[in-house]
Amino acid sequence: MANKSAQQNVTFLYEGVDRRGARVKGEASGKAPSFVRAELRKQGINAKKVVRKREINIGGKKKIKSIDITIFTRQLATMMKAGVPLVQAFEIVADGLDNPSMKELVLRLKVDVEAGSNFAGALEKHPDQFDDLYCSLIDAGEQSGALETMLDRVAIYKEKSEALKQKIKKAMKYPMFVVGAAAIVTSILLLKVVPVFEELFAGFGAELPAFTQFVIGLSRGLQAHFLLIIVIFVMFVVGFSQLKKRSQAFADAIDRLLLRLPIVGDLTLKSTIARYARTLSTTFSAGVPLIEALDTCAGATGNAVYRKAVLQVKEDVSTGQQLQFAMRATGVFPAMALQMTAIGEESGALDAMLEKVAIYYEEEVDNAVDGLTSMMEPMIMAVLGVVIGGLIIAMYMPIFQMGNVVG
Prior knowledge:
Elements: H1 2-8, E1 10-17, E2 23-30, H2 33-42, E3 46-52, H3 66-81, H4 86-95, H5 100-114, H6 119-123, H7 132-144, H8 147-202, H9 210-224, H10 226-246, H11 248-260, H12 264-285, H13 290-300, H14 304-318, H15 323-330, H16 335-347, H17 350-406
Antiparallel strand pairs: 1-2, 1-3
């Protein structure tokens, strides 16, 4: 029996943070990612990523995205609520999927379940698609005999999380797109249009206005070092991305900075609280012990400041302190979240109160995104008008001056 158990162990690669906040990575053996995470927690390591070594992307055709998992979960929950058996539900859902990789994943789950594996065990074989939280909730549903109810709850959680993610992307993409378009238009004007005017001005035989000379200087500099500027920009973007990925201290500093920025900080705060409350409400209502639920929430917050705060809350709660006081001691949770948590603990309806907190802050994020978009539109148009209009004025100033002299 021991040999059989040993044969089932596989090697996983992990990345995480130790007790001192230092980034660590390595290899560990276990039957599933959840076992590896549990063993690493005993060693004081909070694993953020656990993947099977040399695991090949399913299908190798099209990447499986978070939205694919969300749709799969909702469809499976709907099938099971309608009384369709799990294996048959896999077949029906797989037939309706457009992504070949996702279809192959669902069929693999079907094969594993047909072979006698429980649903949670089948999911744990695919940690890149189903995280520890997802597997834990499904396992809780199977253990309690209410899998269809739990699937519905997981589907709601995934849908809310996906909606929140899309709102944040919407807030960030719009100004980035417009600024990018402005940079392209400005570059075209400096590279193609300004040189034509420069040749025209060469025959004037008069000194050009200072503003026009400045723009011509920019044009010459951009023409001379265009490729170098592109290389430096690409290197900066890649370097920033790699540094954020490899240096936990740098990533934490960026997270702290985001919370302090005037407009982005408020949006980051609200989205983080919404994720925390939604995750804790879902896990706690599923029957997961509060300390384990808080451990899961730490990684789900998406921000280093709140990840550390939630881990501290977990430590305080494990010593017998009430959740509301542990949260208050961190000094990072807003008053509304603290008050609702206190009411939930006193009334014995913590999961319901946390869900209300999540709904409130999700609506706040929605309003903040709409407000940010409305505010950014006139600001961006004004900036575009000043930049492009300034370039045009700089080119026509010598012509206007010549007209005045002739007149």
